[in-house]
Amino acid sequence: MAALVAVSVVAVTAGGSLWLSLAGIKRDPTLLPQRDQGSVSYVAGALNLLLVGVDSHQPGREASVLMLVHVDSTRQRIHLISLPRELLSPVEGGGTDRLSLLYAKGGSVAVVESIEELLGIHIDHVALTWLNGMSRLIDLLGGIPVDNPIPTSNSGIPFPRGQITLSGEESLAFVPEGASGPGQLDRAECQRLVLQGIATRLLTSNALSNPGTVKAVLDQLAADVVVDSKLDARRMVELFVGLRTQPNVQDLQAIKLPTADRGTTPTGEGFVLPDAGRVTSLGRAINNDTLQDWMLNR
After folding, report:
1. Which of 80, 166, 211, 276 has the fewest CB within 10 Å, making it most exposed?
2. For the whole model, what pTM was predicted?
3. CATH topology (fold) of 2-292
4. Contact by Cβ (8 Å): 6, 218
5. Distance CA 45, CA 54 (A)
6. pLDDT for 54-74, tens place per residue?
């Protein structure tokens, strides 16, 4: 979400060509289920967006990164909730499956239905992004911040533990190809950290005060992002204005969906189970717009 709205106002004020670039981001009406609002009760004005990252445009590929973005009703806080790709989550009609496989089999609609049932929430929007095109975007933003939990190196580039800033080239090296070795982050977790860094920079980067940079960012997003048809250019602008006109707006805050036991399927695929009690309380906090309190008391 941040990657889509943070440039909107500058685009509008800088002229028609930037507005056309913003409107050029692809919209797909099939990303959301065709359903009514439902019976979920939540605070008016709050917003939930499902962000899905995949490695290629080929259909039937598993999702690499799945996140839920929650923008609170006051437009002062944005929470980014990481959803493990190996999470066993409900399937419409009964049973469970890994989230990444749900996407491969049923696209974003299957994932939306599953997460809504798991957390008891309503998802308003969906954004898909192709991760292999993000390096140029990172350079346009002047690099991205990453909180690296494990010191490592790849392609001759060291990545120390702690807060680091990655260029586009460094972000490609940070995300390993193939299976990870002992003591290393796996590819999906590295991609999650990079995508989180992009979202943070798009909220805070001073580079977005330059109309030329904004147009380049929008053109790159148009090549690598697809959103649902309800998230049109005007809606993006409204969201950004709501965020930026608040005097006490906070930086993006990250949450990991609470999980419990791990296991392996008969076919050898790893999975993780949700922590039922804490997931229920997380969903309640999303609906009540009290995620900050939930983070303090978890």
Report:
1. 276
2. 0.86
3. Aminopeptidase (3.40.630)
4. no
5. 29
6. 987 788 889 989 999 999 998
